[in-house]
Amino acid sequence: MSRKPLRVGMIGYGFMGRAHSNAYKQVGQFFPSEHQVVLKAACARNADLVKPFAEQWGYESVETDWRKLVERKDIDVVDICTPNNLHKEIALAAAAAGKMILCEKPLAMNAAEGQVMVDAVEKAKVANMVWYNYRRIPAVSLAKKLIEEGRLGKIFHYRAKFLQDWTIKSDLPQGGQGLWRLDAAAAGSGVSGDLLAHCIDTAIWLNGRLDTVCCMTETFVKERMHTLTGKVEKVEIDDACIFMGKFANGSLANFESTRYARGHKAQYTFEINGEDMSISWDLHDLHRLQIFDYKTESKLRAWSSIHVTDNGGEHPYMDKWWVPGLAVGYDTSFTHQVADFIKGLETGTPQGPTFRDALETQQILDAILDSAKSQKWVTVAK
Ligand SMILES: NC(=O)c1ccc[n+]([C@@H]2O[C@H](COP(=O)([O-])OP(=O)(O)OC[C@H]3O[C@@H](n4cnc5c(N)ncnc54)[C@H](O)[C@@H]3O)[C@@H](O)[C@H]2O)c1
Q1: Cis? peptide before 52, omega within 30° of 0
Q2: Measuring from atom 7 of ligand 1, which residue has the nearest CA?
Q3: How many C-beta neighbours within 10 Å does residue 307 have?
Q4: Cβ(92)–Cβ(23) below 8 Å
Q5: I want to staple 362 with a disulfide (CB 3.0 to 4.6 A). Which of 29, 114, 172, 254 is the partner?
């Protein structure tokens, strides 16, 4: 079959640059479609570093100025894998150049920036998507299916946590390569935009709009050496963030994220309690979905663990992988996202989260940070 090329230009070659490159290489093998991804160019500021990356992953060329990459006629899709403070500028230039855009999360530094980005892609009518990849872990997609089938009944509670422990050392600097997440000028916020953004995206996808929030944040280490200035500077990001809220469907929200939970590296968990069923999921055991089905006859009623590996069409995405019982990992959530992006192009029905979908997460992030500052309940802007 002769396939239509989908020529990708990737900006940034760090953690996400690798995760996305892997997905682009896998997608054509496991999710064949009318399109064939072509790794056209990789871009980063340092040619000596980006060249070996491009060679390792099979990119045809390199650029050291993202503006040049965006202007190239032989690029169809711009993939933004840079720190958050560059998302808007690159996306606006890419939209103006008529490129499709895949942008890493969070969409922007705040909702005002996000709105400008939404306006730009909608005006330019370019396909767009944000890499909230956890939606596409098969067990999480199965949770969505169970909710859509109405199996949970009325939902009362949604609780989520994202726990890490890598910034506890007070002599860890802020800013620059690898540490931009601690620098508010590059990251916008701390664990809220970095980690809770994922929890919020999954939550609004599974459980609908979040209307009001009340939040508390803490910055445990108040000053850190800044790698770029060489000076000790105030830390402006949130190290920990805890918020509660109310969803439009009446259920109560309970969210927590921190980089100070000793022993936890990336423990993203959620639990949803409905009248007829509860479900829970843990990133450390990502191919399992735990369910408690109250409709089961009482003598057999129990929490059970679904191994989400059935390839008979019942478990999302799994018909494209191995045989039942064999799990897939974190990396495949990105492959599934590329496959769905291409499906959106081929069916004419864009697959979410689009920039507009991701703006809602940005509005919630603004509301929780406003609430932490004012110490008051805040209504999420619509
Ligand atoms: N979807 C997810 O699960 C997930 C996970 C991690 C990070 N992210 C997001 O991905 C983005 C990148 O994070 P990361 O962990 O890959 O960071 P990283 O530090 O590993 O990589 C960032 C890359 O951006 C490059 N870069 C910085 N400034 C640049 C410029 N002016 N021009 C070109 N390249 C530039 C750096 O050289 C580096 O290659 C962030 O927005 C982050 O929030 C998402």
Answers
A1: no
A2: 16
A3: 15
A4: no
A5: 114
- CATH code: domain 137-379 is 3.30.360.10
Any atom of ligand 1 within 6 Å of the Cβ of 178: yes
Distance CA 309, CA 344 (A): 25
* CA pair distance 269, 332, nearest whole angstrom: 18
Distance separating alpha carbons of residues 37 and 197, to the nearest angstrom: 28
Q: Is 32 in the pocket of ligand 1 (CB under 6 A)?
A: no
CATH number belonging to domain 4-133: 3.40.50.720
Our answer on whether the CB atom of 66 is closer than 6 Å to any ligand 1 atom is yes
Ligand 1 pocket test, pick from 16, 67, 162, 202 with the greatest ligand atom count within 8 Å of Cβ, gives 16
What band does 1 get if pLDDT is binned at 50, 70 and 90? Answer: low
C-beta of 130 in contact with ligand 1 (< 6 A): no
15-30 helix and 331-347 helix, angle to the nearest 10 degrees? 60
The type of residue at 193 is: G
Same CATH topology for 4-133 and 137-379: the answer is: no
- Ligand 1: residue of 45, 56, 66, 82 to mutate (most ligand atoms within 8 A of CB) is 82
Distance 294 CA to ligand 1 centre (A): 44
For the chain, the structural domain boundaries read 4-133, 137-379
Which atom of ligand 1 has the smallest separation from the CA of 131? 1
* pLDDT surpasses 90 at 139: yes
CB 132 within 8 A of CB 202: yes
Answer whether 131 contacts ligand 1 (Cβ < 6 A). yes
Pocket test for ligand 1, best of 11, 13, 15 (most atoms within 8 A of CB): 15
Banded pLDDT at 47 (limits 50, 70, 90): very high
pLDDT for the residue numbered 301? 97
pLDDT score, position 313: 76
pLDDT of residue 62: 98
Q: Is the CB–ligand 1 distance for residue 47 below 6 Å?
A: no
**Per-residue pLDDT averaged across 55-81, rounded?**
98
Q: Is the pLDDT of residue 318 over 70?
A: yes
**pLDDT 10s digits, 140-175:** 999 999 999 999 999 999 999 999 999 999 999 999
Q: What confidence score (pLDDT) does residue 312 get?
A: 81
